[in-house]
Specification:
The complex is a heterodimer of chains A (111) and B (115). Chain A has 111 residues and is mainly beta. Chain A has no helices and 11 strands. Classes of the chains: A mainly beta (111), B mainly beta (115). The interface between A and B is medium-sized, with 25 and 25 residues.
Chain lengths: 111, 115
């Protein structure tokens, strides 16, 4: 079993839709939960991060962590064609640099 | 330059050939990583360096070697390329963000095809 599981998609939605992206994990030592966004033929960039459980909102993006279920989510409200990208969840503990990435979910937002 | 640069952007390589992928950063980050990204498998760590002069093996190190002579450069070498090394390779540097959270800054990637 992988430490982090993420549905690769692709996920196709119309412009304006609410998008839900999810990951599950198995290592209870993870404390930091991140979402990276990767546009086509580019490197990933950090989009959002949360520490431990709870929600964090940044504009149209909301990150949720449920440590009891080992489940994290990224919600995108009022999705735009410019949101079309691959979204990778990532997790790390408190012991150093090591970060585990999910496989990434490809999202297409149709105008 | 700003951030991380990688060269070449893409390469087609005959099996058995030696190839070095270059990575340079100008952010003075101590730690740098090499990943390969394959469809359905995500980012897998090949080798890492926590500081100049030190290197370590990641999840998939076989067939690859690295060196870290200075802070800015972190080349990845394929000694004798095989088709299974066809992938997109990303170099990243790591910087502390908050508490024990480290942000990774990725280069634009090198698309390598081994025939």
């Amino acid at each position: 079993q992988k430490e982090v599981e993420q549905d690769p998609g692709p996920l196709s939605v119309p412009e304006g839709a609410i998008v839900s992206l999810n990951c599950t994990y198995s290592n209870s030592a993870f404390q930091y939960f991140m979402w990276y966004r990767q546009y086509s033929r580019k490197g990933p960039e950090l989009l959002m991060y949360t520490y431990s459980s709870g929600n964090k909102e940044d504009g149209r993006f909301t990150a949720q962590v449920d440590k009891s279920s080992k489940y994290i989510s990224l919600f995108i409200r009022d999705s735009q064609p410019s949101d079309s990208a691959t979204y990778l969840c990532a997790m790390s503990g408190t012991g150093g640099f090591k970060t585990i990435f999910g496989a990434g979910t490809r999202l297409f937002v149709k105008a | 330059i700003a951030g991380i640069t990688q060269a070449p952007t893409s390469q087609i390589l005959a099996a058995g050939r030696r190839m070095t992928l270059r990575c340079t950063q100008d952010m003075r980050h101590n730690a740098m990583y090499w990943y390969r990204q394959d469809l359905g498998l995500g980012l897998r760590l090949i080798h890492y360096s926590n500081t100049a002069g030190t290197t370590g093996k990641g999840e998939v190190p076989d067939g690859y070697s690295v060196s870290r002579a200075n802070t800015d450069d972190f080349p990845l070498t394929l000694a004798s390329a095989v088709p299974s090394q066809t992938s997109v390779y990303f170099c990243a540097s790591i910087s502390p963000r908050e508490g024990h959270l480290y942000e990774q800054f990725f280069g634009p990637g090198t698309r390598l095809t081994v025939l």
